[in-house]
Amino acid sequence: MLNLSINSNELHQIISNVVRDVLKSEFQNIHLESAKEPERLLKTNDIADFLKVSPLTVKLWKRDGKIPYRKIGRLVYYDKNDVLNSLDKYQNISK
Hints:
mainly alpha, Arc Repressor Mutant, subunit A, elongated
């Protein structure tokens, strides 16, 4: 039987290193997300205006899975390019 023992200082250092690495990784992911073009993330009314449809149509497309969206807290956002790509694929399928 292998007996490994570490003291509290070593355990503290191990945990600190793991937490630091996880936080560093998460910070990089958040930074990459926020580096996207901010004008591409639109609210429901903005994407409706851009697409020249009603906000209700956007909500129905969201509900039916026709367009992708993101939730940040309780707010819903749409990535302009993702929505356009999704609608283009949907339009090509229905032709």
